[in-house]
Input
Amino acid sequence: MTETSIKKTLYISATPPATKNLAGYQALTWIKVTGVVTIGQIGFSHATIEAPDLESGITQTLKGARSGTAGQVAYRRIASDAGQAAVAAANETESEVAIQIVDPDGATSDYWTGIVHSHMDNEASVTSYEGSTFTFVPNYAKVRGASEIS
Output
């Protein structure tokens, strides 16, 4: 059965895991980011390498190195929210952080380590809400496993 994204939640840890495995992520202290509106696509894209062959006249495309793709997250401003404050603080550092995106069932999460950047307030208009967006770029592969919300 297809699920919706409703009830997904986002957590941040100012400390990346000591090991990039499920046990490493589950050992972290997590802060919930409340008021999340959207979580953009987070993942990797690959460079391509073209390898021409003179004899066949065909250029093969090979998969090259991969790099993290920037996913944008939007949230409504909620006064005194510790998670939103942690995101803003992470934006001001050069350090990696960890995020946990919890599935709607609350049992399974995607864990990522990377950087937060480009934290910006929403524009002020008659059709917008008070809130912010930020960009998260992963530097390590996703780890999927049991949720650890503490």
